[in-house]
Design a protein that fits this description.
Elements (H helix, E strand, L loop, with lengths): L13 E4 L6 E7 L10 E8 L11 E4 L1 E5 L3 E9 L16 E10 L6 E5 L6 E2 L5 E5 L18
Antiparallel strand pairs: 1-2, 2-6, 3-4, 3-7, 5-6, 7-8, 7-10, 9-10
């Protein structure tokens, strides 16, 4: 057993908004033993929080890519662009700033349907039930001046 444990690289795990490009979200997940060699496929299923209970607006699935991390093994990642032009219905909130919920879906070679509801263990936010979440547009709030208006404790 090693004397020093390495910290997980949180800069490549969970859902993270790209600081350089508005609307671009990066996802990353370690799934040891789940690889393309085993004919597995992994998807991230995303929907705007305001659309999640509208039956005629389904979540969007984005395929993830597999690679091997030298320290931690099987790593899956995807980068998606969330743009208004891609929304399925005119009244959908897709592409607008706000909270989006997501989960991972695994396709096994032994089953036709998805193994659904894999929550992101590296999520920084959560939605209703078993959903992970991220907030699109948080970069626009950087530099906002906040002030304290409460009573002094002394």
């Amino acid at each position: 057993m090693p004397d020093i444990f390495e910290l997980l690289p949180l800069n490549k795990l969970g859902a993270r908004e790209d600081k350089q490009t508005s609307g671009k979200i990066n996802f990353g997940l370690f799934l040891p033993g789940v690889s393309e060699e085993g004919e597995y496929e992994l998807f991230v299923r995303v929907i705007h929080e305001k659309d999640q209970f509208l039956q005629d607006i389904p979540p969007m699935d984005f395929e993830m890519e597999h690679s091997m991390d030298l320290d931690y093994g099987d790593y899956w990642s995807a980068t998606i662009d969330i743009e208004v032009k891609d929304k399925l219905k005119p009244y959908s909130a897709w592409g607008t700033p706000g909270k989006y919920v997501y989960r991972y879906c695994l396709k096994s070679p032994k089953k036709q349907e998805f193994i659904d509801w894999i929550i992101d263990p590296f999520a920084r936010e959560f939605g209703v039930g078993k959903l992970s979440a991220f907030t699109l547009g948080t970069n626009t709030m950087c530099g906002t001046k906040m002030s304290w208006n409460g009573k002094s404790l002394s």
